[in-house]
């Protein structure tokens, strides 16, 4: 009995050392081994099941620790916790990845992409960092605005206004790619007011040309 007790202790010490990681390094992805019973689970072989669909690019990057922020559950409000200060994070490719993540419909990706995009645009020097990425950001926003899911569209609209506030007239040349999707939703009563306000802001930030 004593010898078995001695064997157990060092194991737990090893486990503890594995879990402690530095705040700025991505966590090591420890994949749980599939249980034999999973093979018999009909969910895993259902061609239309959620399990058979490959994860989206955003979900895969998030799982690998490629997005340096995590969702922190609060009693009233959720917030993001950055592993490094957002100012030190390279916009390329993170801002584009977050913009692509706006199309997500699952938690926590919905919150991380929306809040991460917003917070990254709030850092000092965001204008200079975001402008060169516009050719890649606009298609990602267009895809969110074309999405059938109302929440995805709403996130895309908010992100577009946030981007416009940061890059100003630089967005004008790209607006033609986005206005079709906005005009389609103008017919929808629940979005009419929100889109009208968004268009006014785009005009304000874009100047006379817009």
Automatic annotation (TrEMBL):
Q: Where is the composition biased (Pro residues)?
A: 25-35
Q: Where is this region: Disordered?
A: 1-50
- State where composition is biased (Polar residues): 14-24
TM helices/strands, residue ranges: none
> Which Pfam family is an annotated match for this chain, by its short name?
ParcG
Superkingdom classification of source:
Eukaryota
User: What's the protein here called?
Assistant: PACRL protein
User: Which organism's genome codes for this protein?
Assistant: Ardeotis kori
